[in-house]
Design a protein that fits this description.
Elements lengths: L1 H29 L6 H7 L4 H5 L5 H24 L5 H21 L2 H12 L3 H23 L8 H11 L1 H4 L1 H7 L8 H10 L4
């Protein structure tokens, strides 16, 4: 019975992945607003009813795609957080990595940017969960920095939230898009070093 259940679960996951892959292709090519469930079904040569067996709406498909994209961002941050480097260097690489990912993934491809903006504007739980997970990673790095005598003794959770908030112009797609062309803004490097100095003794 267990083998049958595993097979059903695997088949379901395969179908979910196919739907998400097709939706992402269409969202990237035509844009989120111009793509509907019927388009996704047509891309997969199946009926819209079949899509609805796995997702209740286009919004639900979008949420799942957003979660998948943010998962890549979290994995990058997780890998950096566990490098055998000083806390300062890990925070520096974290901030640089998040900024690079935002610029390359969410701005260079305008249709992807549209998807992320819709998610942010609707305040989806996947966005809030992602921010909380990143804050937890940052708190861990800062806690280790405090224990090593690198940072001033403070509440790591509060410091993590403040560190993340101070660098929002590097990671929030809409703000990044507005600031890239402005010459009277602090550079990413300047912001990162300023935020790290605030944690030091």
């Amino acid at each position: 019975m267990s083998d049958l259940t595993d097979s059903i679960d695997a088949t379901r996951q395969e179908n979910v992945t196919r739907i998400l892959d097709a939706a992402e292709r269409l969202f990237r090519h035509y844009g989120y607003a111009k793509t509907n469930v019927a388009d996704i079904a047509r891309e997969l040569d199946m009926s819209p009813a079949n899509i609805y067996r796995f997702f209740a709406s286009k919004t639900e498909i979008h949420q799942a795609l957003c979660s998948r994209m943010l998962g890549a961002s979290y994995q990058q941050a997780h890998d950096i957080a566990h490098l055998p480097l000083s806390a300062s260097e890990r925070l520096r690489r974290y901030a640089q990595g998040q900024h690079k990912l935002t610029v390359e993934t969410m701005l260079d491809e305008k249709k992807v940017h549209e998807m992320v903006v819709v998610a942010i504007e609707h305040n989806w739980h996947v966005i809030e969960k992602h921010i909380s997970r990143l804050d937890d990673l940052l708190a861990g790095i800062i806690r280790e920095g405090i224990e090593a005598g690198e940072f001033v003794d403070t509440d790591p959770a509060v410091a993590a939230r403040c560190f993340g908030a101070s660098l929002v112009t590097l990671c929030h797609p809409q703000i990044v898009a507005q600031c890239l062309a402005k010459e009277n803004r602090a550079t990413p490097g300047e912001l990162i070093e300023f935020a790290i100095r605030a944690l030091r003794k």
